[in-house]
Amino acid sequence: MEGLSFSHVPVLLEETLSSLQIDPEGTYVDATAGGAGHSARILERLSDKGRLLCMDQDPDAIRVLTERVGGDPRVTVIHDNFSHIAEVLEEQGISSVDGVLADLGVSSHQPDTPERGFSFHADAPLDMRMSQKGPTAADLCNTLSVSELKQILYTYGEEKNAPQIARAIVNARENAPIETTLQLAELVKEAVPARARRAKHPARKTFQALRIAVNGEMDVLNVALDSMFDVLKDGGRLSIITFHSLEDRMVKQRFAGYCQGCICPPEFPVCVCGRTPSGELPFKFMTASEEELEANPRSRSAKLRCIQKIHSRYPE
C-alpha cells in the first residue's frame, strides 16, 4: 500500500487540541491515531521534552504513522487496540500521561478503500475488519440466525426494519453465500419499505451495525474508557470524539460516573460511602462549526467530550 493514499481529515481539530490543554513537556497518547491527522498537530505543540504515543489496531494505519511521524524522536508508534492502553504504557515504562485522545470514527481511509469492505458505494468483499483479523461481516451474514442478525441490527444500527433485513439475509444465503458489499446493499434495499429507500442510503444502518459487531466496538470502548481515564495524571485530560449515539451515550454516562460524588441515600445525616468525584467536565460537548461542516461533511455527526481527572478512582 502506498502510504500517502491513507487520507485522513481530522474532525474537530482545533477544538480537540484546545480541550487537551497540551503541556509542551507532557506525555500524550493518540489512542486511535489513524492517518496522524491529530497526532501531527499535537506534535507541533510539544517541545523536545514532550512525548507522543500513536496507537492504532489497523496495520495500514501503522505503516502510515511510521512513515509520517515515526521518524520523530518524540514519537512511539504502537500497533495495538486502545483498550490495551494501560498495558502498552507499562511496557513503555510510563506510569501516567498528561492527556489521551480517542477519535472513534472510522478513518476515511477505510471506507475510501473499497477492498476493505466498509462501503456500500463500491463492490468489494464484505470484510469490515479494522484489525484485518478475525471473522468478517460476510461470516456474520452467512452464519448467524435471523434472531442474532436482528439483534445486531437493532442494537448497533438502531434499524427499525431489522426483522425484514435479517430475514432477507438468511433467505438469500440459502441460494448463494453473501460475499460482497453491493450484494448486501441490494438485499437491504429490497427488504425495506419504499419510504425507507427515499431517505439516506437504506443500507447505511445495516453496514454500521455489522461494522460495530465485527470489530466488537462497544465492548472495546467499554473497557477502554476506564483504562484511558485511569492512566491520566491528576489534572490530565481525556478527549473523545464520537460519531453515533450508541458510543456517545456510553461516553457521556461514563464521564458522568467519574464526576459523581456521594451516593448515600438523602436521608443519611452524614456520608458513609466516602465516594468523591474523580473527574470534572471542562465543557458539556462540542460539535463542528458551520465552516467545518461545509468543508468536511463527515464531521456532521461528530461530538467531542472531554473530562479532566481530579484524582484516582482508586485512592490509596
Task: Please report the number of helical segments.
Answer: 14
CATH class designation of the largest domain? Alpha Beta
Number of strands: 8
CATH superfamily of the largest domain: Vaccinia Virus protein VP39
Classification by helices and strands: alpha/beta
Shape: globular
Examine the coordinates and then state which fold CATH places here, giving the name of the CATH topology of the largest domain. Rossmann fold
Mind explaining what this structure looks like?
This protein is α/β, with parallel strands linked by helices and 316 residues long. It has two domains: 3-109 and 217-309, Rossmann fold (3-Layer(aba) Sandwich); 119-215, Putative methyltransferase TM0872, insert domain (DNA polymerase, domain 1, Orthogonal Bundle). The chain contains 14 helices and eight strands. The chain has helices at residues 13-20, 37-44, 59-68, 85-91, 109-112, 137-143, 146-157, 162-173, 181-191, 194-197, 204-215, 217-230, 245-259, 290-295, and strands at 27-30, 51-56, 75-79, 97-103, 232-242, 279-280, 286-287, 303-309. Strands 1, 2, 3, 4, 5, 6, 7 and 8 form an eight-stranded mixed beta sheet that branches.
How would you concisely characterize the structure shown here?
This protein is α/β, with parallel strands linked by helices. The protein has helices at residues 13-20, 37-44, 59-68, 85-91, 109-112, 137-143, 146-157, 162-173, 181-191, 194-197, 204-215, 217-230, 245-259, 290-295, and strands spanning 27-30, 51-56, 75-79, 97-103, 232-242, 279-280, 286-287, 303-309.
